[in-house]
Design a protein that fits this description.
By secondary structure, this protein is of the alpha/beta class. The protein contains 17 helices and 20 strands. The strands form 3 sheets. A 10-stranded mixed sheet has the order 5-6-7-4-8-9-3-12-10-11, with helices on both faces.
Length: 493
């Protein structure tokens, strides 16, 4: 804990930070320290420990903010959690104004909300030695910096601002801490964790420096403020996983975008529902007509989750069919496995699908990609119709064809447990490098079955309103015709 802090204890309980980011957060000497990056990292508990550094100093006071009142008082939130800490330090709760008073001098920790921008004016003229923001990304930039102006001390302790956050690419916080993220602005850079930088405001712009003196030289007479960012994730909070071992599973069960943010700490992923696909465009059916042509298309990956790659791509196999102008997504297989196990999954799935289902793969460029297809055709799937497709254009361009078909109600989904994951990934596409394996498999399968089938000029798919899809994606124009490639797809037995 920081110099001057005290650990609270009684005969049975001792309260202190966990080793790692939580301790680093409490030791930070920066004027502003932001603690976060994923859910379950012990951020709120650390924020509640922070005011204890001033307890025992006459005149010390702190206020911890949440954006709305229910976020303070709901089950298990700030107010509830504070009861695990402050009574051990001898503090008395005052529920009428959500505050704690500490002996012997009556130092206070208060909780407050600022739902509307104007709410911060209630603190005009206030002097708050320690200001806390729980989930600072939910506050506006104006609210944060207005309250920063209230961060003053009359008790002799250096004032500070401490904040927690979860990833939000559209929050002002993303830009404010961008130096502490990797080159893609996606994940925290562990080499920069806890490092201090300095800034001043030049108009509305932030001017950053590696040292205070650097900014003072360039802007004499100004008062640079120091900032640090300390990322944390569930792995940094063994206490939580010890008392609630199912918490990780619940995070892993969240939808794609929330899972990427809260479990993996991804600052770049955005919900992009409707840019290419919308859930309501897909009809769900209980059965399919007989006699349809089917293909199982695979987007291969060969990586298992590891400490260095916690969220690798999936190997995905989409079973897709076509019948009388309609397309049917019949089944999806998703695995994360090594190359040998992937081959086993592909072979087993082909046996279940039967010899009448073609098997397709996205073929990488060069002789290596061709060799993979030949290996599957000769050694893994002898007797099946196997083909490889070299992708042309970027992923979004390849997804235009099924996007237009779905928009016009030409794709049906057979009801199954895989539907939600499939639709969530499609709705979030494109998503700056987050999983698009099912989208790739759909693009390949749809293109393959469309060749010479339902794609002639004048057909429903060819007449789809491509301009509407293009406008949604900000693309000036889009092909409205389709010309089958000569010779068809390469096939091997």
């Amino acid at each position: 804990m920081p110099s001057g802090a005290r650990a609270c204890s009684d005969a049975a309980v001792r309260i202190e930070p966990q080793p790692g980011p939580q301790t680093e957060f409490l030791r930070s000497s920066a004027d502003i320290t932001i603690y976060g990056g994923a859910a379950g990292g012990g951020k709120t508990f650390g924020l509640l420990l922070e005011p204890l550094y001033g307890v025992g100093t006459p005149g010390f006071g702190s206020v911890i903010f949440r954006r709305t009142y229910p976020e303070i008082t709901s089950e298990g939130s700030l107010w509830d959690t504070s009861f695990l800490i402050y009574p051990i330090c001898g503090a008395t709760a005052k529920e009428t104004d959500l505050s704690w008073s500490f002996p012997p001098h009556g130092d206070t920790v208060s909780f407050a909300h600022a739902e509307h921008e104007k709410d911060v004016y209630k603190y005009q003229g206030s002097q708050i030695c320690m200001i806390g923001f729980d989930q600072v990304e939910s506050f506006t930039e104006f609210q944060f910096f207005y309250l920063l102006s209230r961060n003053r001390s009359v008790c002799g302790i250096r004032p500070c601002v401490r904040a927690t956050c979860n990833p939000d690419p559209d929050s002002w916080v993303h830009g404010f801490i961008s130096w502490w993220l990797d080159s893609e602005g996606r994940f925290p850079d562990p080499e920069k964790s806890g490092r201090i930088r300095w800034f001043i405001r030049d108009g509305d712009d932030f001017v950053w420096g590696d040292t205070r003196s650097e900014l003072l030289e360039a802007y004499p007479g100004r008062d640079p403020k120091s900032v640090s960012f300390i990322p944390a994730s569930l792995a940094d909070n063994p206490a939580l996983e010890g008392v609630d071992p199912g918490y990780r599973g619940r995070l892993d069960a969240m939808p794609l975008v929330d899972r990427a943010r809260l479990l993996y700490g991804d600052w770049s992923i955005r919900v992009a529902a409707g840019n290419m696909f919308r859930r309501e465009w897909f009809g769900v059916v209980e059965g399919v007509p007989s006699g349809m042509r089917t293909v199982r298309c695979w987007d291969l990956a060969a990586t298992e989750p590891s400490s260095s790659n916690r969220d690798p791509d999936y190997t995905v196999g989409l079973l897709y069919g076509a019948h009388e102008g309609l397309f049917y997504a019949l089944d999806v297989v998703r695995v994360r496995a090594n190359p040998g196990n992937v081959e086993g999954v592909v072979k087993h799935t082909a046996v279940v699908d039967g010899y009448g289902t073609e098997v397709g793969f996205e073929q990488e460029g060069g002789s290596a990609g061709k060799g993979v297809i030949e290996h599957y055709a000769r050694d893994v799937l002898p007797g099946y119709v196997v083909f490889g497709e070299r992708p042309t254009g970027d992923k979004a361009t390849r997804a235009m064809l099924p996007s237009a078909a779905a928009q016009h109600g030409l794709i049906r989904l057979v009801r199954g447990a895989w539907n939600h994951s499939f639709l969530s990934e499609l709705e979030a596409f494109p998503t700056n490098g987050v999983h698009d394996d099912q989208v790739d498999a759909l693009s390949l399968a749809h293109e393959h079955l469309s060749r010479g089938y339902g794609q002639q000029p004048g057909s429903p798919v060819a007449q789809a309103s491509a301009s509407a899809t293009a406008r949604a994606r900000g693309i000036p124009s889009m092909r409205t015709d389709y010309e089958p490639s000569s010779g068809g797809a390469p096939r091997m037995r």
